[in-house]
Structures
1.
Amino acid sequence: MSPLNIEKGSTSHSAYDLRSHLSDVIESHTLAILVDNEAGVLARVIGLFSGRGYNIDSLTVAEVDHEGHLSRINIVTSGTPQIIHQIKMQLERMVPVHEVYDLTVAGPHVSRELALIKFKGKGDHRVEALRIAEIFRANVVDSTLESFIFEMTGTPEKIDAFSDLMRPLGSVRVSRTGVAAMLRGA
Amino acid sequence: MTEMTGAKMVVEALKEQGVDTVFGYPGGAVLPIYDEIFQQNEIRHILVRHEQGAVHAAEGYARSTGKPGVVLVTSGPGATNAVTGITDALMDSIPLVVLTGQVPTFVIGSDAFQEADTVGITRPCTKMNWLVKDTDNLASTIHEGFYIATTGRPGPVVIDIPKDVQFATGTYKKKPKESPSHYRPQVKGDIEMITALVEALETAERPIFYTGGGVINSGPGANQLLRELVDATNVPITSTLMGLGSYPASGKNWLGMLGMHGLYEANMAMHGCDLMICVGARFDDRITGRIADFSPGSRKAHIDIDPSSINKVIHADFPIIGDVGHVLEDLLKVWKSRGRKTNAEGIAKWQAQISEWREVRCLTYKASDTIIKPQYALERLEALTKDRDRYITTEVGQHQMWAAQFLGFEDPNRWMTSGGLGTMGYGVPASVGVQVAHPNSLVVNVAGEASWLMNMQEMGTATQYRLPVKQFILNNERLGMVRQWQELLHGERYSHSWSEALPDFVKLAEAFGAKGIRCSDPKDLDDAIMEMLDYDGPVIFDCLVEKHENCFPMIPSGKAHNDMLLGEADTQGAIDAKDSVLV
């Protein structure tokens, strides 16, 4: 039908070809979002994610500047590069959002999570649990004759590794805070 | 700094913002504000018949004047009834300030009478919203609301005001010279990217402008700059439904509307171009058709004030974030300073190719001298009204597409339609809002009978305020667009797409205190339209048209721009089962 004989499905031949972001590999990104600390702001941000079908893998939020009424929301999300780009653009245009940092893109960053892990077990398993806790530098913050609560801080992967190791030894329950993250350097 | 009640603050703040008209409906939770409105004469309140009507009327007012529309409704059902209109305004980027009453702060959360979580309900369908809990913050929040609604990509804001905040006394804060908000959208485009685009424009063989509602939102200056640029470069231009009027329909480079029911020449030119300059449009699915086959041979520039619109659907080779007016100004400046170059030879060939496409005459329909064809009705309406000071609103459906195809718009702000959300019931209240803003102009609502019925109660508003709106109903006793899709996609099983018990529109007009006219014979049509135009008051025109007419051209969903159906003969087996899941 087209007199121009453009082949179907051919793509743009652009001098500014930045098409790498059209890849469909799922990436995980840590975003830090500085927002006005006002009623409903968290609902606004979360509503964006649920309304547009984006993922939230982890979420933390707390006030970081009492004078300036600013809160920091850390979100770990996943999607294709195009989706991640769209998430950032959608966040940035929200009225109460001051800044959006993509720590995954910005460079090396520190991300830490706090976890409380309750372990129930008996006999040798109790001893083994304590030994593993020592290796992971987890502190015992509560103890009964049948249980411990360990407190540990680390990357999400470290907490996963610790709780995975504990599971074969007894029943394990975990309470995690979600990721707090910051860029390295000044 | 003066002390006053919250209710008085609302009225004062509206006055300070230059508001002359409010569309609203009273109720328990806004009585203090209505009491203040009663005691002044500067702001005119238009009493609608349903809160959805208030919002669409305010949209019509805003779209036809360039000013923000203001709505005042009560808590609970008042606010929830407004939600459809607010969502419509968000999708079409219409600036609105919607004030909702709320139950007193001390009963919020107790499931009080007419309580609804208005801020929660409207969060996803507003640009921003606020619950004002302290009278001292009320005036500044209203000023902030106007700033947010009208700055950057415009949109609706909701300000929820509990009744005790309206009664309490506080300090009125004047409109600040500069908004204290950190919200500062970028208006100037990146000059390097603009220069790169000018370079591409200088050499392009098959360039095209694809413009949208953003040009109209940017203001009269932006429309002037667009016209200057298009005519100086001799580049063909097409527009979305929302952008009609930014370039005149009589202009030599005008291709007509593009998209699902766009013109053949416009869609073919989009498909075949080598440089597409998108100005204030957003690559909606009604525009692109199948993404993978969308304009495969072109480099694409995208000028938009909303960064999230760029690269959302279609990759932009020249992404330019900024206000259309500012960017076009810089674009023209750079293009002129570099010597006003274009690839004249290439463009001449391109224009010749487009002329061939025009020869297809895609809007041709089978004429009849016994039945009024809807296209014929619009051709006659166009012929008899085009030289008047005319504003057109529409409902949603086939008639809306035919209106976009057959009516010509010479200026911006003359065409009010529900584009993004596709809200049936938009047209009647929108025509009321437009007529309020332009009392001496001709306002015609091109309607289908099914859509028209959805907000017909606003005829009461038209009669009350002596608004001579003309309701031009193309009555096919069908939900025409639904019927068309059922014919093409669902084996002609016409599930619930006709109306068996329609009212007598002439008697209905009389019941509303309006004039009713019925016409079913093409020979009588011109006289009947003239009778409608000559009548000094609201008219309901029941134009009985062909019941089974389909709207062409049509790009079936899931198809590319060059897969257009041009008429009935093309429709056999055109859409396969896989694509029928797309809306």
2.
Amino acid sequence: MTITTALPDTELPRLRLDVAPLLVLPILALLALPLVGSFPTWVTLTIAGLAMGMMIFIMASGLTLVFGLMDVLNFGHGAFVSVGAFTATLVLLPMQGWMQADSVLLNLSALGLAIALAMLVTGALGWAFERVIVMPVYGQHLKQILITMGGMIVAEQMIHVVWGPDQIPLPLPTSFRGVILVGDAAIEKYRLIAVAVGLVVFAAMFLVLNRTKVGLLIRAGVENGEMVEALGYRIRRLFVGVFVAGSTLAGLGGVLWGLYKEMLTAAMGSDIMVLVFIVIIIGGLGSVGGCFIGALLVALVANYTGFLAPKIALASNILLMVAILLWRPQGLYPVAKR
Amino acid sequence: MILQRLLSGDFPRSRVLALALLAIVAALALAPFLFPGARAMNVAATVCVFVVLVASYDLLLGYTGIVSFAHTMFYGIGAYGVGLSLHSVGPTWGAVFMGLTIALMLSLALALVIGLFSLRVKAIFYAMITLAVASAFAILASQLSDFTGGEDGRTFGVPELLRPGFRLIEAEVFGTAINGKLITYYLVFFSALALFLLLLRVVNSPFGRVLQAIRENDFRAEALGYRTVVYRTLANCLSAVVATLAGALMALWLRYAGPQTTLAFTIMMDILLIVVIGGMGTLYGAVIGSALFILAQNYLQALMKQASDGLVAVPLLANLLHPDRWLLWLGVLFVLSVYFFPTGIVGKLRNASRKPL
């Protein structure tokens, strides 16, 4: 007698999509409209918020994924942002000719080269960071926080050693400067580019996570790492890969952020980390989708309050975080394990 | 017996450590007579304040196992509380106490709220929340410039007894004038000593034992019937109050309260470095660590400058030894000490003295 395992013909039940957090964004934007008053200003602010949100998302996504997968929170993540931005100057400053040329192609290729180099360097740095700094302290939260913080101090000081103690101005390429007028609303070109890059990164990440084997393993690892190991996959290798990818993205975010600010300081990474932490807490630690929405929320709120009441701009993010956590204590999209 | 009571039964347990502690305390106690220069006095007073500040942080990090990045916020509240009160009311003792009371209440309320809000969850969560809140607070303090003086901070007058111009007695004692600066120094010194001994009492009490139990295994502590949230929050509040007092002392000494001296993130980093290098989980680590660190901060840089000037020919090396890069070396030392001697200098010394037995 043979045992036949009857596979049911019916499909597996689909995951119910949790839409409530998705609705928060448009509601927030609509609520801000009467407060801001004028429609063109509102459009400008919203686009600016989206651009800033995309950049924060790029920087935060790697961090939240690393935390989700391996329970490691890297307080030194900000160092990758700074290093990325500073590495870009190695290409952008000598290639001023291409940058200032009035040709989109030359501008783009200079920028592309800079971003490629920055991502390469931060990726390598991420790998070294994982090997040297993080590996010996798996599972020990207290030591992790201390040691990654120490790693960040060292990295920040090394930037000073290599690039000198001064701020470095980083002008935008010619063709990305200036604004596009849509009706009465002025939209900076660079912000549109940032939104586009952010969307591409999000889409790529979404596809990799949901449509590939590697993505499946990563998601499974986030839910239950031991089970994935028991099935014969080396989650350690997967983790190193994710860590490197996360640092690479931080490097990309650093270049974008540096060009956005047009001024580089070694502390820029640790400054932005505050927002990044708020974002990943709001999104739910370990959740990429939550991180995306959280980043946009934080940036929009920062922009609206920056316009309405500039003095409380940063405090507004804390209030936002408190409000979200009162609504959903584990963040917008809690990851099942935690 | 008296010593036993004073130190709450927590002796240094190492001859070298005991000698080092004695030397530091003696040097600090006699600082105005031994090192009369303005700079040396400033170093000594800063060491006193930092001993208290770091010891109160160690209560959180070393004893309870909580990583907080909001310690400078409480320190800043203390400094600003006294400073702004003296600035707006005028240089009276009433203003000092009013400012201190308001600051203490604010610190306590904030510590309670943050603690109850986030200490239920993991250590990592608390670390992130405090980082966010503290940086928001620092920005708020520099934004509300009408009230706080913004980036420039506030200078203010202190009560007459503490002013440099004030003379208690006309004659000089051992060649040192008994003026207001000296009195302020001893106010700082004895307050710091009292607060340190108080903290020593706390960590060696049954309450302190529970905190250590929570650090070692919070689940087990909870199972034994201790409400870990309550204990953690209490430790958080206590440490916030002591940090506030330290901030108030610093403000009285500097006669200035500003973001760079109190709220800056670099100070938070300094505190972390001192705790870890000095030794987590022992308050003596705070004493040794602060003394070494502040001395290094003020005098090591001169040494590095010489080395750097000598190596101008070697470009990168000269940069590595540039006096402004001293934090780099401390960062490396920090990472190494987390790996190789997590109990810090004090732990090393105590172990070394235990081996022969």
